[in-house]
Design brief:
Helix content: under 10%
CATH superfamily of the largest domain: Aromatic compound dioxygenase
Order of helices and strands: HHEEEEEEEEEEEE
CATH class of the largest domain: Mainly Beta
Mean pLDDT: 84
Radius of gyration: 19 Å
Number of helices: 2
Number of strands: 12
Largest sheet: 5 strands, mixed
Shape: globular
Distance between the termini: 17 Å
C-alpha cells in the first residue's frame, strides 16, 4: 500500500496522468492510475468512552440538543473502493457540544437506558449511511487515564468515533475529524490520520460532510 498522503496531495499530477492516458488511447492504464487514490480507512484508538449496546438510531441528537446541527453521510466500501458493503454495522459515539460524554455523568456508565449521542445503524444495500447529530465539542484529555497519562491536558479536536464491522471484512475503529480545526496539528491521533479529516460545508440547517469508509477484505 502506498504511503498515506494528506487529503488532496498529488491529485493534480494524478489527474494529469489519467487524462494523458485517456487522450493517448491507453485505456488499460487509466484504471490502474485511478486506483492509486484508493486506500483503506486507517484505524484509530477506541478511546476511554466507548459503551457497547447503544440503541439502533441514526439521529443521535434530539431537537432540544444544544449545538450546531451536523449531518455526516457516505458509503461503506470494500477494498477496491468501488464495491458497496451492505449491512455493515456502524457504531457511532461522541461528546456533546460542551465536550462531555454521557459516561461522564454519574451513574450513566452502567445504566443501559441512558445512552446519549450514541447509536448504531446498518449500511443499506448500496453501502450508504447517514447520521444526524450536532458538532461535538473539544475537551482536554483527563489526567490518570490508563495508558494515556502522557497526553493529559492536550486539547482534543472535535471528533466523532466510528466502529464499523462486517463479517467478510476487517473491522475498523476510527475517529472522524473536521478540516480547519486548529487542534488537529498537535493532536497525537488526528495528526497521524489525515485521511480521516473531512471538509464541512454549510447548509440551511447547519453543516454537513461526506465520509466514505473503506474496509479491507477479511480473506
Amino acid at each position: 500500500m502506498n504511503k498515506r498522503q494528506r487529503p488532496g496531495a498529488g491529485l493534480t499530477r494524478r489527474h494529469f496522468l489519467y487524462a494523458g492516458a485517456m487522450l493517448g488511447g491507453d485505456l488499460l492504464a487509466a484504471p490502474a492510475l485511478a486506483q492509486q487514490a484508493c486506500r483503506l480507512t486507517p484505524g484509530d484508538i477506541l478511546g476511554p468512552y466507548y459503551r457497547f449496546g447503544a440503541p439502533f438510531l441514526a439521529k443521535l441528537a434530539g431537537p432540544d440538543e444544544a449545538g450546531e446541527r451536523l449531518a455526516v453521510s457516505g458509503r461503506v466500501l470494500s477494498a477496491d473502493c468501488r464495491t458497496p458493503v451492505a449491512n455493515a454495522l456502524i457504531e457511532v459515539w461522541q461528546a456533546n457540544s460542551s465536550g462531555l460524554y454521557d459516561t461522564q455523568t454519574p451513574g450513566n456508565f452502567t445504566d443501559k437506558g441512558r445512552f446519549h449521542l450514541r447509536g448504531m445503524l446498518y449500511s443499506d444495500a448500496e453501502g450508504r449511511y447517514r447520521i444526524d447529530t450536532v458538532m461535538p465539542g473539544r475537551y482536554p484529555v483527563p489526567p490518570n487515564l490508563p495508558g494515556l497519562e502522557q497526553y493529559a491536558g492536550i486539547t482534543r479536536p472535535a471528533h466523532i468515533h466510528f466502529r464499523v464491522i462486517e463479517s467478510l471484512h476487517v473491522p475498523v475503529t476510527l475517529q472522524l475529524y473536521f478540516a480547519g480545526d486548529p487542534y488537529i496539528a498537535e493532536d497525537p491521533w488526528a495528526s497521524q490520520h489525515p485521511d480521516n479529516v473531512i471538509a464541512l460545508e454549510a447548509d440551511g440547517q447547519g453543516r454537513r460532510g461526506v465520509f466514505d469508509i473503506v474496509l479491507g477484505r477479511g480473506f
